[in-house]
Specification:
Elements (H helix, E strand, L loop, with lengths): L1 E4 L3 E9 L4 E10 L2 E4 L11 E9 L2 E9 L1
Antiparallel strand pairs: 1-4, 2-3, 2-5, 5-6
Length: about 70
């Protein structure tokens, strides 16, 4: 998961399944401005399907679809 923060901010990145259940918290804390790259990790053990990654920073929320094959 790649993203860019314009300013330093408390940032939360979460993974949800297709029905909205939270699967895991990928990141939760203060992050510096700049480009970031996060990995979901092998412990999530994702089955094939559609997931959503939600990034919240500075009171703004962004969501992207993730397809696992």
């Amino acid at each position: 998961i790649n993203f860019n923060l314009i300013d330093a901010a408390k940032t939360t990145v979460k993974l949800y399944d297709v029905v909205g259940r939270e699967i895991s918290t990928i990141a939760d804390g203060q992050m510096a401005a700049g480009e970031h790259q996060l990995s979901i990790g092998n412990d999530a053990k994702l089955s094939s399907g559609v997931y959503f990654v939600t990034l919240t920073a500075d009171g703004r929320r962004f969501t992207k679809k993730l397809i696992v094959e």
